[in-house]
User: Fold this.
Amino acid sequence: MQASKKTTQFRKLLASTGLEFICEAHNGLSARIAEEAGFRGIWGSGLTISAQLGVRDNNEASWTQVMDVIEFMADATSVPIMLDGDTGYGNFNNVQRLVRKLEQRGVAAVCIEDKLFPKTNSFISGERQPLADLDEFCGKIKAGKDAQSDDDFCVVARVEAFIAGRGLAEALRRAGAYREAGADAVLIHSALSTPDEILAFMHEWDGRCPVVIVPTKYYSTPMDVFREARVSLAIWANHLLRSSISAMQTTARVLHETESLAKLEHEVASVGEVFRLQGAQALEDAERRYLPESRPAPAALVLAASRGEELHELTEEKPKAMVRIGDRPLLAHIAASYRSAGIGDITVVRGYRKEAVNLPDLTYVDNDEYADTGELHSLWKGLASRAWGPEGLVVSYGDVLFRKHVLDHLRELDEDLVIPVDTQWQDSVNRGREVDYVSCSFPYSRTHYNRRVLLQKVSGELPQREIHGEWMGLIYISGRALPGVRDALREMHGDAQNRNAKVPALLNRLATSGHAVRVVYTSGNWLDVDSLDDVVNAAGF
Ligand code: SPV
Ligand code: MG
Assistant:
């Protein structure tokens, strides 16, 4: 079903019989965050838009500068935005131009307040602030309503009588006149820490048109009080900006004092989260659709024949690769990582409960001897199952999750055999699982990160001083290298002793028989699922 227009959505919020909420935002990012949290509308706050620009809430930012910000906010969201239009940035004529421009930029409503340009924030000496002439302000409202081309665009009239200390009678006189002039709702503002002024107004107003409130100062009053008083819309007017200020102050101070990210890295949003909020995935999808493939993608071969007994009853009916991680099976996550790297030709070697390994758009090869063979046998079966293209092949396990960029790294180098090696191997030491430690021609070095590092040995048992990292369970094999790998595998396969051999045995053989196995050092960004704890942790990966 097509979503209704933003203007219509906003009008519905105002007309709702219950109390609705909208949340402040001050740029595209915060607007998206507000929408993701579930808000069905956004307040484009004058205070916070000017604050994030580093200026005062005194019309120091020009109205076109505010419009530029609000346009980013509208582009980033699908819920309606009401702009805090201050006094309308001039007279009736400026309000008309404002309304037209807001409509063009996808903004659903504007709120104008009955003060004088340049205004001051209501919480700074509000009682000293002059109010607009009532008739002149009514002219602005009429002009705004006449300028709109979409019937559902809303003009909200903000009554500052309480802020200016002019009392209930003046607030009611003005609100009534604004309603008569065509305002779709009135915003009644109060700087008290109690709801008294608002409730007195609501009592007398008696539902003549929707009422909007801003409970910044009287926040401790339960919202049910306003619900019962039949307030239509409450605005959380500045809280995303205020929370980000506290977070940024802490981060800046800790960085400056400690000259380290160690205390912060886990507190702050990941770079991946930044990318997600920016919509990086949509661009990647579009690139795949619209750009010519710059480099042909390799295929993928996933070894997923074993049961994974260590997951106990979770793997009674299905192998580990099909255990659910969050909303889908492990194998679906692996396939998604491949696809996000442009690798769509994915073959899976299955064995235990093979009928349960049935995700769409994957090719399957069966290792029916899974119970008494090792991974090398699955690899053999997989390689023998078809001809592989010149673009080569990435081999991985059915229980290893990795991020797309690990695959990108493997393919970036023009090398025949490449493996990723995690330098954070110490993290695995006490996890009580088998670890494939790796010894290389050079240890990882920040200053020599471009050095051509080669595999020397991979083994579960290496003296600590020889360990340079942990193999992540992935291998890139170029098209050129495939025949050599197949030959090595054939020889190993012919030897009954290798029936239970694992992939590291092949890597060692290749490394010691003149095949350079290039190492790419990485840090984290992968996870192997070896225990029930891993199943839980993987959901957050
Ligand atoms: C704003 O958010 O800019 C407002 C609300 O106008 S207030 O700061 O309470 O005046
Ligand atoms: Mg404001």
